[in-house]
Amino acid sequence: MSTLSIIIFLPIIAALFLFFTRPSIAIVKTVYMIVTLSVLYLAVGLYIDFDPAKSMQFIEYHPWISEYGINYHVGVDGVSLGIVMMNAIIMPLVTLALHKLRDKNGYWINLLFVQGGIMGAVLSLDLMLFYLFWELMLLPIFFMLGLFGYAKKNYVAMKFNMYTIFGSLMMLIAILYIAVQYKEQFGSYSFDLDELKKLTLSTRESLLVFSGFMLAFAIKIPIFPFHTWLSDTYRSAPTGIVIVMSALMAKLGVYAIWRFLFTLFNETSHAVAPFFIGIGLFGLIYFGFSAMTQTHIKRMFAFSSASHLSLIVVGFFIYDVYGLIGSSYLIVAHALSSAALFLMVGIMFERTRAYRIDDLGGIARVAPKFALLFVFFSLSIVGVPFTAGFVAEVLIILGAFKYNIYIGLLTTTTILIAMLFMFKTVSKVLYGELSEATKDFKDLRLHELVALVPLALLILAMGIFPNYFIKKIEPTAESYSQKIGVIYND
After folding, report:
1. One GO term of the cellular component aspect (predicted)?
2. I need a surface site. Which of 50, 76, 118, 207 has the fewest CB within 10 A?
3. What is the pLDDT of residues 91-129, one digit of tens each?
4. Is residue 444's pLDDT more than 70?
5. Where are the domains positioned within the chain?
């Protein structure tokens, strides 16, 4: 079994073992930590061994349901490598920072299923395999919302489930349609991404199939107007699930646009690019202003994430190599920052039992280490110099100006908008008078620092030494840019 297969199936096998044996919560958490740290160790080795001069690597192919062209085909390139590393880094940190919040076996077992599902989806090079892992990723989220959520958890779980089922069904119909069309043109079924590149579809067919895929991805990201599940879900979801949804699952949605839509429907993607650039620009401004109006801190960060995800969509659809690299970099940068901030929100809730921003305040007076890291991660979301977000946003803005000067000007507004809602939140949460909820606020404990400091150091490293990380992405971005006729200038 290759490294990629171990990374995919180790969490799934461990989750199945824990589900059927039902050990104590202490054993469940121990197994969770061992498994996620093992995945991290393998992922770091994968990152070190990845050759920046090549694109798709560590390919593993095994016939599976050969009669219908379904095979086990996985591989990793510079873009998927970033999501693999995010998944591997973030998942063990969840239990380090939040181990007191949930003492339920199912919480950690479901998170292992989610980790395996995300790994499988991001590494799949077969459409049916991708769909199966996509569903495996989503199902535990539904259970966790219903079992461990807050407030209107049953309503929120059903709403989220209906949205995602509808999107997944449209994607499945699109997958089956192109497999049937491949059989009509070549005499056999195939779901393999490389083989499906040969497929010829009419303009109408291509647009319809593109729409089926895009609907599933748009709901998961989410982009306007498919975001109506977002605020209630983030508000009601347990912190661990919010971290997974914001830092990992949403990023998988934008990654899938690159991997599948740009690969299989490049001409259609190019044709509809102005539409999605417009939707993305509207979304980054709309979600940014929505974040400013929120009184619930998780809902505020939910809209903040949606604003930056809209910027990533713009970066992809401007079809410029700087935009491609910048968006790929922002996927990683924003995942690290948002995961850290949601971890800190979970820590705040553990101490104060409050999510309302007006119930918080004065934390900097009693918890300077907490305040310092909260400010740092907030500034990294904004994209201040020497953070990973700054490098990513500058690259996207450069690509946007190359595409169109007015698009470039609008894209720069994301920095100003992010400053407005982040500084407003920071000032209310950290400064001012101590509230009833925060008067006994305790500063970060050792295990919480162990979870948060590595994220801060990695964000700094990506901001100060970006070339080391970008060189892993660049060959993949260049190969895509050459396919669409974009000239890359050093």
Report:
1. endomembrane system
2. 207
3. 998 877 665 555 677 888 999 999 999 999 999 999 999
4. yes
5. 3-480
